[in-house]
Amino acid sequence: MTTTASTPAVADDDEPARPQDPGDPFDRDVLPTPPGATAALLRSLLAPMKGRTALTTSLLLLQQAVVQAGPLLVAYAIDTAVPAFREHRHGPLIAVAVGYLLCALASGLLQFAFIESSARVSQDVLLDLRGRIFRHAQALSVDFHERYTSGRLISRSTTDVESLRELLEEGLQELVTVVLSFVYISAMLLWLDPGLGAVAVASFVPLYLLVRVYRRRAQRVFRARSTAIAAVIVKFVETMNGIRPVRAFRREAANDADFAVLNERHERVNGDSLLEMARYVVGSRLVANTAVAAIVLWGAHRVVSGSLELGVLAAAVLYLRRLYDPIDRLGMFLNSYQSAAASLEKIAGLLAQTPSVPEPVRPRELPPLKNEFPGREVVFDGVRFGYRTGGEVLPRFDLTLPAGQTVAVVGTTGAGKSTLAKLLARFYDPSAGRVLLDGVDLRELAVPELRRGVVMVTQEAFLFSGTVADNIAIGRPDAGREEIEQAAKAIGAHEFISALPDGYDTDVRKRGGRISAGQRQLVAFARALLADPAVLILDEATSSLDIPGERAVQRAMSTVLRGRTAVVIAHRLSTVEVADRVLVMEHGRIVEDGRPAELIAGTGRFADLHRAWRDSLA
């Protein structure tokens, strides 16, 4: 079986190395965000909490109304209660004192209720958002995770969510307080004295212009700050994940220098944000103090002339201080807002990404098995495929694997072996043609149905933190302990598992670091056997093992592969011994196809590879 020539792959695992294309959104921290996606995300987060949001707003409205009654009581005390007290009428002054105490008490209780209610709303929003990010990241296709770093995902779910928390828990209260203060106090000043009120309202024009300038400048700064901290996290995660090669090749000094550059950039943009904040605070205080000074001088002149009562002037000054004091806090809100807006934009861009391998609109089920064995027929029908950053890895590719047949696929690096496995596992969809499982296109199978039918065991047997039993049960979560142990016994893993400190309940720790590579691979095979798939893909499952470990895994393979359709990607030709058929691939096409003994006896590529392998063992 042959195919036409194709452009050769140029990197390990068949995928061409991704060039640093500045136009590629995956090379930037911010993924493209559709218009309106950020606002839609915020609405969807707040929609389930309309009732609690309304209650929280009502509590703040009441609290501000109570707080703003204080200066009126002061004005009444100066102009009415104190003169009455001089005439030995104590009632008005007592009423003022009791009223002030009641306002203070009511303000404290309402503030407590507001903080509790707003905290519940914000925490529920953040809980929902973190869950969405985690679920969506898992649902995105493998090609997304191969191109968008895990450090950036961590930054989205930690630093960016934390920015939103600061806005919800602190910034919004400051904004609402400023707005309500402006409305209440402007109305009170205009009611107390229209002239003073008009001057106070006019002073907001330069403050408004100052806020506009600050917001525009801060927006650029906070976008840069969010990108800078993401770069720091990416570098940190990358270094810690690769700590072994870092130590082996003495990369500590070079990594430290690279990290220092990123860290200094983060420090610089943080300094820029603080500088912008300082400019805003100085400007706002200058405007506010100038306005207060002008009103005090004008008001004092009117008091002397008898056109303004002293209590009204005192109340106006108190109101002005209450009006201008939150202006500084408005700067803090704008800080929180710009930071949260930049973060929410990035989160919205992430959530707007769609899987390149979508769920079918009308999923089909696999037909009943045709025989007593679990294997199913696999057909590659006119398949073409190329990675988005490289040439075509598989030109027109046709292949039929009968049910129950074990096929070994060999060839040089970049020949298309791993691409073949990824298409069969539907980590990618072909750009043309179909991959069929018992006559059903993989694109028509729901993901759970596909994962029950096709399982892959990779070169690195990834184990999650947890017990050995938990890791085996990933193959079938509803399996009981007896079924888990039976799968381990069939693979030959029961003996070493039983010898662990807590047997099947032993915590394997991060990435299974508590057990050896060969033992991890045996656990992975037990997991695959428990899943009982129709098609099993072994992608270089023994290439990282020593000779004893490889022999143990090969014995396990003979158990797992029995009766199943299997595709074995092999670099070590010892793995081919379990195969019924061998395919030799070059440049995305099959150049040899036959039984192992027939190809070894011939004069083709596989015979040369096998001869070289035998010589290496001598």
From TrEMBL:
CDD domains: ABC_6TM_Rv0194_D2_like
TM segment ranges: 90-114, 198-215, 280-300
Membrane topology type: Multi-pass membrane protein
Source taxon at top rank: Bacteria
ABC transmembrane type-1 domain sequence ranges: 54-339
ABC transporter domain ranges (all copies): 378-612
GO molecular function annotation: ABC-type oligopeptide transporter activity; ATP binding; ATP hydrolysis activity
Short name of any one Pfam family annotated for the protein: ABC_tran
One cellular-component annotation, GO: plasma membrane
Keyword annotations of the record: ATP-binding, Cell membrane, Membrane, Nucleotide-binding, Transmembrane, Transmembrane helix, Transport
Protein name as catalogued: ATP-binding cassette subfamily B protein
Organism field: Streptomyces echinatus
